[in-house]
Amino acid sequence: MTSTISAAPSHGISSDSDTTGISFADLGVPAAMARVLADQGKTFAFPIQVDTLPDTLNGKDVLGRGRTGSGKTLAFAIPLVARLAADGRKRRSGHPRALVLAPTRELATQIDAVLAPLAAAMGLNTTVIFGGVSQGRQVDAVSRGVDIVVACPGRLDDLMKQGHVKLDSIQATVLDEADHMADLGFLPVVTRIMRATPEQGQRLLFSATLDNGVDKVVKQFLHTPVMHSVDDASSHVDQMTHHIFEVSGADDKKDLVQKLASGSGRRIMFMRTKHHAKRLAKSLSAAGIPAVDLQGNLSQPQRDRNLARFSSGDALVLVATDVAARGVHVDGVELVVHVDPPTEHKAYLHRSGRTARAGSAGDVVTVVLPEQRRDVAQMLKKASIGARPQQVTANSAPVNSLVGEIAPVRHVAEAAPQQQNQPRQRAEGESSGRRRGGRGGASTAAAPQRESQGGRGGRSGGAARGGDTAGRRTGGAAQGGTARRGSDGGRRAQAPATRGGSARIYSSETGVAAQPWKESDDRPARRTGGSRRASRPAGSGR
Fold it and tell me: How far apart are CA 450 and CA 302, in angstroms?
């Protein structure tokens, strides 16, 4: 295995201050893509791009090693698009031509955001495949024909098993953040996916480290790869300033965290658990500091909405678990706060990498309680961080200097919960059943014309108000009429709550319905009592 080692460090993605002075056109990037990059302000390449592009554009397998924020995405996106555009084959339903595997939804989405404009400039298209959302749209996109698929291993494996996706036409495969996929236990699935791709295809693997089985993937699937490395696994950014703030107890920590969150620029605060991330975001918002959370309990639409609010500046604080430590790139994050210090040094570096990107400076704060001092000191030593601890409170001079200008207090009203499958509003005089009682039919005065005669009344409720209604079992008489058994019953009464506790509960915190069955489960709630005949559809005969 040949190796090319670059001595020049890389500190960003799109800032000319950290580039090599070599343009993308000089590296052989097709003119159409070079124009797209220039329109984005990316004229000159970064070291990892300069190192890898000559080999990747020539079809060689490449193993790239570089920390987060080193420009890896463009390093593989450019040759991927260029290879497919030069080949000229037509896309086929269910048979993508190139594949990018990423460990998280957020990273997959952001890779696609880089790929899509380049692909469009060359007449190609892309799609993203990941779990946590309905697979319907993903299946439709693949069935219409797609050139490049950016996918998380789990959902892609599911679609392959269902026969929706076949990888026999793949010309190039990229494994991004392979070490993180190994940490998440994805390597068996990745291996299965790689075996489904043609052996002669080009393979590109990018990883900060080669431990946890990544080296086995390299040996098994990459053919005499060229290795390029711009820094080691523990490297960090020179423009990043680290601060270790020690506090005397939980109350002081709470005050300090709120003070750090109160600045006028974007900041990301990392928590260890999903519950604590959600609680801190709510607490900051209640204090007039608009904040959103990003954690594993959120649905994909909720994640997208919160990231959009953070990116737009509607919320200045993102409170996240480690799900956001890789792949989430928002320009202008000036401060990262480890509210809960990580236990592993690589997690510290990946979290911290959310700031000081694109050539700009950034600060990283680690908040340390007395009982955490020894563990944090050991973790920082492994991460090669030499910052000295400082004993502080929320009003200490180092804290005030770091926070700078305080943002105006803003109380953002929570969005009203959107009720799904909300029961139809009844017109005045229309029947309304009670929860218990006889099988009342609809009022003959208000029943729609389409209701068939001879239909059975609703299982819940006595006779409906305002008319002569068919009632049986234990219900009382209708108001203004008599309850009797007859053949004129209307359709079953619509009630907002169903038997057995199956009524949806709308949460003011999440804006979605909490249900006793899965959201993807379209089955109705099971009855816990009542007549079997009462559950027949309205209008059905005996």
Answer: 40
Distance CA 321, CA 427 (A): 48
CA-based nearest residue to 100, from 163, 178, 33, 37 = 178
Using a 10 angstrom Cβ sphere, with 0-12 exposed, 13-18 middle and 19 or more buried, the burial of residue 147 is buried
Contact 102, 80 (CB under 8 A): no
Give 58-92 pLDDT, tens digit per residue. 999 999 876 666 678 999 999 999 999 999 899 99
Q: Is-contact 240 351, C-beta < 8 A?
A: no
Q: What separation in angstroms does the CA of 327 have from each of 38, 110, 252, 513?
A: 23, 7, 32, 29
Phi and psi based region of residue 190 (left: phi greater than 0; alpha: psi -120 to 50; beta: remaining): alpha
How is residue 142 annotated by DSSP?
H
Residue with tokens 């390029």: 228
Cα gap 317→293, rounded to integer Å: 8
- Per-chain mean pLDDT for the chain: 77
With b for 16 or more beta-carbon neighbours within 10 A and e for fewer, the 119-136 pattern comes to bebbebbbbbbbeebebe
Q: Which residues contact 389 (CB under 8 A, 6 or more apart)?
A: 244, 245, 246, 368, 373, 377
Q: What span, in angstroms and rounded, lies between the C-alpha atoms of 77 and 95?
A: 19
Residues 532, 79: Cα–Cα separation, whole Å? 64
CA distances for 402 relative to 187, 243, 258, 396, 409, angstroms: 41, 10, 13, 10, 19
Out of 38-47, 161-170, 494-503, the most confident range is 161-170
Q: What per-residue confidence (pLDDT) applies to 174? A: 97
| Residue 142 Cα distances to 100, 105, 163, angstroms | 14, 18, 11
